[in-house]
Every structure is written in structure tokens, then in C-alpha cells.
From TrEMBL:
Belongs to the relA/spoT family. One of its GO terms (cellular component) is plasma membrane. SUPFAM superfamilies: ACT-like, HD-domain/PDEase-like, Nucleotidyltransferase, TGS-like. In eubacteria ppGpp (guanosine 3'-diphosphate 5'-diphosphate) is a mediator of the stringent response that coordinates a variety of cellular activities in response to changes in nutritional abundance. It comes from Formosa agariphila (strain DSM 15362 / KCTC 12365 / LMG 23005 / KMM 3901 / M-2Alg 35-1). Signal peptide: none annotated. Gene3D superfamilies: 3.10.20.30, 3.30.70.260, Beta Polymerase, domain 2, Hypothetical protein af1432. This is GTP pyrophosphokinase. Its EC number is 2.7.6.5.
Amino acid sequence: MTDAEIEHENATIARAYKDLLQVSYRTLTEDDKKLIRKAFEIAVDAHKDQRRKSGEAYIFHPIAVARLVAQEIGLDATCIAAALLHDVVEDCPRYDINDIRELFGETVALIVEGLTKISSMSKDMEDVSLQAENFRKMLLTLNDDVRVIIIKIADRLHNMQTMDSMRPDKQIKIASETLYIYAPLAHRIGLYNIKNELEDLSLKYTEPDVYFDILNKIKDSKEGQDEYIREFNELIKKSLDREGLHYTIKGRPKSIFSIRRKMMKQGVSFDEVYDKFAVRIIYKSDTANEKFLAWKIYSIVTDHFRPNPIRLRDWISSPKSTGYEALHITVMGPKGRWVEVQIRSERMNEIAEKGYAAHYKYKQDTEKEDSLDSWVAKLQEALESNETNAVDFVEQFKLNLYSKEIYVFTPKGDLKSLPKDATPLDFAFNIHTEVGMRTRGAKVNGKLVPLSYKLHSGDQVDILTSDSAKPNSNWLDYATTAKARGKIKSALKEDKKLIGEEGKEILRRKLKQLKINLDEKSINDLVHYFKLKTSLDLFYRIGIGAIDNTMLKAFAASRSNALVSFFKNKINRRANVSKEDLEKEEVFAKYDLLVFGKEEEKLDYKLSNCCNPIPGDQVFGFITVNEGIKVHKKNCPNAVSLQSNYAYRIIQAKWIDSSQQEYSAQLTLSGIDNLGIVNQITKIISSNMHVNIKSMSFETDDGLFSGKLNVIVKNNSMLNKLVANLKKINGIDKVSRV
């Protein structure tokens, strides 16, 4: 770099630092500014020789993270300093954690140490168990100090914002990881704006075509949206002004990711998504009158526009466990369009925008436990079991982070928040672990219900207990929350161990009668013979009688005749292998459709059943443990989990030829039941397009029809053309691929 370039860069760094002080959500004292200045100087010194992949000075990254922490999240000077220093200990050998402790005090040092631990975890992850275990350890830092995770989320957001210069495979891995764990965490801590941006940026790298298509359509419709909000505003402004309310009305477009999710879930196009934006009414109020004014505004809005009675959400009377408060209604607005209206006080809006920081700014000195405090306290229970499989744990934890909530009552009338689709078992474990363990049955609204019953908001639940009751394996089918499932699994494992210990002694006695010693070799032989995974599985099956004397005698006989068995197996294996190879050779000689990796190699593969890819779909290969390469669509429901947890097993894949093979695809149709419509459908499919129909079924109901078609196509473009032609038939409303 030239002297002029260095001078320009230094001036830009100084300007970024000044901006950081000016945009802080909190009022900074002189001591705060001194602390931030000192952290800034140490960070500049530590990173002076470092550059990011984009070529810019590394110091811009910690400044940007600190800015997000200060402005978007609204944390204090301690956190701003920690954000500036978050990479110092990891990246610069001149500074260790003791130096940070000496210079900045215990709190900053603890936060920086937590962030350093998380960063070191993410380096060189070679297998899924390590990756999942590291996620678990990262979540454990929530118990130490929730600010560690919040700064880590800001760090991840800035990395996502500046990821263009990375390799495509790295982009997909980081984006999937973000979607898999960081976006749900941001949602759970109440950082809704950051959650939306993380999801949108993840979509930008995992499905760029979809992302830019929706983004461009949103831009094209922005002018019409602004005009619509002005029209909506004008219709209710006089009524609101007449009541002497101080308020602002804003329009907020839904995130690209949420629009995409609606399109996928409802099987509709962008134009058919009716609530692509929401109207937000933010009013001034003291705490005492907040609820009264919210319902007053609700009354005014519904005087002008007809509300959808099943779309009322009252999170003022019962705030979400994240601390979110608002009144949501969906009304029939101007031009006959449904509009979501969100009613919030300025305090509620700040909590929704800033999450944790505003939550504590407005926290009252009352005895009522804060919802975020109680949630963080509950984490210890979810994280404490070391026996839980790390991958299962992360999956369960993620589900609980993102799940929608229901509100149910105890017999005494206390309100409890549970994830949507929770069962009486989840409720029992939510009350207390011992109540869960001793559950015998449940009453909902005074009536006995099965333990698999799905609870609904407003239910009153009474758990029936018994000292003799204990968990059984069926309970895992009924429980949905991480806490309940974790406790049930631990109890079942404990039972299995006790039965296994008894089984081991039984096995020792029975083998003695067969003149076989119970040693490591005989145990391994038995595990292999009965096709089990572990010695505990063997002992458990002996204990419950699943492996009896006859089966053990057969094992003993096979050992004594081992030589004959050896040759038999060898001959059988050779016969089987050659037969399979012949079949594979026949298949792959005819159909070289997919190539893998940068070298575009032709490898054996299987198409996954979860998404049924066909030629023309964007796909990737996943190297399984036992079944070779499985091919998934890039928008497969399991894609994010696989790309996040098993990034090292992902292999690039693309179709190179689709003229030799035919694939099955299922379509659903719905519309108005016109005379001869089925004839038109079959004519277009069979005659005009020469596509074979594998099966078809249609149902009519009061003038409407719905149908399912299984068709045989050669590629994706043929299927898309078929869908487009079917949509042209008079009376057909929707056609979508399953």
C-alpha cells in the first residue's frame, strides 16, 4: 500500500470509531468513553498486521461488531469494549486473557474468554459429533453470561454481511450453520430484526436464485405498498387524532425468508402471498395505561376495517416467553386486501427491536421473575445431561428455540407457556421432573386424555401421578420438549443399564454351561452374531429374554463349525457382490445422469426419498455412513441440517444428461369443477406433451375439485412446462409439485 492509501485507511478507521460512539443506544459517560477508547487502541494494535479475505484492514470487523452491539442490540459500554476485543486473545499472541483482565476488569475478561472459547470451537471441525458438541458448549455459555451469545450473534451477522469474497462451499456451510442455530437463538433472545436479517442472508447463499427473485419483486412492489399504507393511514388518522393519541404508523415488509416460507408452506406464488407487509401502530403511553390504549386502538381499527376473528394475537395480556409484547390483528383493508396490524407502545416496540437490552432497561423492581431470566435459568436443565447424543440434543434444542407457543393453565389457574404441539407429558416435566417421572395419566379440562394428546391454548391440565409409574419407551413418541425427552431418555438408559447388569450375569452362567468363557472376544463374537451395536444391547436383550437358550446354542454351534461358515460366507458374499455389481453396471451404463465434485466424476448414488430429486433440480450429494452417496435437492427440508452439521460430507453434484432415464413426480391440482375438466387434463398430459400418467385421483365437493397426479417425466423443465400448461385450463386454480 502507498502512504496515501495508508493515510486514507487510517482516517476511515478513525471515522468508524467516532461513529460508534455517536450511534450508541445507551448514553455513554466519560468513563464509558475512556473504556471504549482503551479497547479500541488495544484492538488496533492487536490486529495491525491482519487483513480480511476482502482485503480490508481486520480492525473494521471488530468495530462493525461493536457498532451492531451498540446501535442494533443496544448493549452498554462493557459489551461494546468486549466486542472490540473479541478476537484479540485468539488472534494476537502478545495479549492473553490475563492482560485483558488486568486492563479491563473481570466482566470484560469473562465475556472475551467466552467468545474466544466459541471461536476456537469452530476451527477445524472434522466430524458431526464434534460440531454438535461444540454447539452444545456454545449454548452452555448462556448460563455463564447471556451477553457472550449476543455478541457472538452480532459477530455472525457481520460475517454474513461480508461473505461475498469467500469460496462458495464455505458460504453454504456458514449460511446453513447460521440458519440452523444462530437465527433461532436470535429469535429466542428477542432480537427479531437480526433474526430476520440472518435468515435472509442465509437464503442469499443457500438459494441465491430464489432470494434475488423475491428481492426484486419486493422492490418492484414497494411504490404500491407505500401508497397502500398512506391510504390505510388516512382512513384511521382522524379517529386516532380525535382520541388525542400520540402515535406513528409504519409499514414493514415481511422478510424475504418468511415470504419464501409462506410460498413453500401454502404452495403459492409470490403474488398469491396476501400479507407481504404489516402495518405497525406505535403509540406513546405510560406503563399504567398501555393495555387500555392498545385495546382502544384495536377498537378504532376494527371500526374502520373488518377483522379476521381467528387472527387475533394478544401478547399484551400474555407476553411471549422471549418478552415480546404486542397486539396483532388481521383486517380486511382497502381494496379488499388482508393486512396484519401490529399495535405496540414505544416500550413494547423497543423490546421487540432491541430484545435483551431494552428488556432490562424497562425491567421493574418487582417480585415477578423476568421471562428472559427464567428462560436462561431453565437452560441448565436442558444442557446438564452429558449422556444425550449431541446431534439429537442440538436438534431438540433448535426445535424448542423456534417453536410457536401455547398457553395452558395448571389446576390452580397458574399460566404456563409450552411449545406448540406439546402434550400432557411435556406439561408434567415443565411443572417438575419428579411429576413427569411419576405421571400415570392426565385430565384436560376435566376429561381424561391420552398422554399423546396435543394441548391447545387455554387448556387446563391436571396431571395424575403414582409412585409406581415410571417412563417407558412409548413416552418418547409423546414428548416434544427437550427437557421431557432428555429426562425420559436418561431414565430409560438407567433402566437399560440395570437390566444389562443382570443380563451379563445370566449370560455368564449360560455360556459356562456351553463351555464358553465370557471374555472380550466372546462378547464381540456375540454382538456380531446377533447384529447388535454394543455389548450393552447384548446384555439388555439377554436380561429381557429376547435372546434365549436356543439362540445361544445356535451361536455355540456356529463357533464350533466356524471353518465351514467361513467358506460359506465367502462364497455367498462373492455371489452377492457380483450380482449387485452386475445390476449397478447395467443401471449406470445406461444412465450416467449425475456428476460429482469439481472433476465431474461419475459415481454410484441413490436419490433420497425425503425430497425425490429429478433431473434439472439443483442438487448436492451427501456421503452417508452405510448407503454411499445420497442425492438431495438444495431446498430439501433436511438440507440446512446436513450442510450445517455434516459440511465435510457434502459433495457438489449436477445433472449432465437426462435423456435416458424417466422419473416419477407428484402434482396436486385444485379448482372449480367444470364439465369435462378431467378430460382436458388428461389430453394435455398424454396427447400434447407425451407424458405418461402413472396414477390419478380426483374428488369433488360442492362445485370444487381437488386431485393428485403421478406422472413420469424426463427432467425438471418438462415438469415445469406441464405445470404451466395445466394452469392455463379454465377452472384450474392451483397446480403444485409435492
